[in-house]
Amino acid sequence: ATSYTETFETVPVPKDTAVAGFTQAGITYTGFAGSPTPNVFVTSPGYTNYGAGLNPTTTSILAANGDEDILVSFAGAVHAVGFDAYYNGLGPGTVDFFGGATLLGSITYNGPAVLGLAGYVDAGSSITSLRWTTTMGGQLNTGIDNVTVAAVPEPETYAMLLAGLGLLGFVVRRRSA
To answer: Strands 80-87, 114-121: parallel, antiparallel or unpaired by DSSP?
Structure first.
């Protein structure tokens, strides 16, 4: 399997500036809520609106102005995804994992403010997106960081590898004869 982690330390948009969305390394981040328009933004290290002993932050974090409703879409086949979740504790926080239009799984948190880990693994089908939705983000932010995705090679890739190894074995055997 191959994996990639997005830390948001280098992004193609200005930090601390609301944008409709952006794409980096085949992952698209799109805002569906926020104020005054749907947005996402990447906070600079030192941001102080997360609460619960998480201030000031030491890394860049993906958030939104206002309530967070962020769609994270993957360009390729992803079979496992995880991320650090900054949850404000002011209302329910939910992350839904999708394979196309099909809901594969969901995690809902409704408790005190925390920095935790959320993730999902599905070896049977591809995860195409996740949606992070929380409330009261205008009062105290929520966000995600260190989005890690793992892709398992498709069966066609294994078939090509086996065919190549078989051909190589045939050539070596023929030369030794």
So the answer is: antiparallel
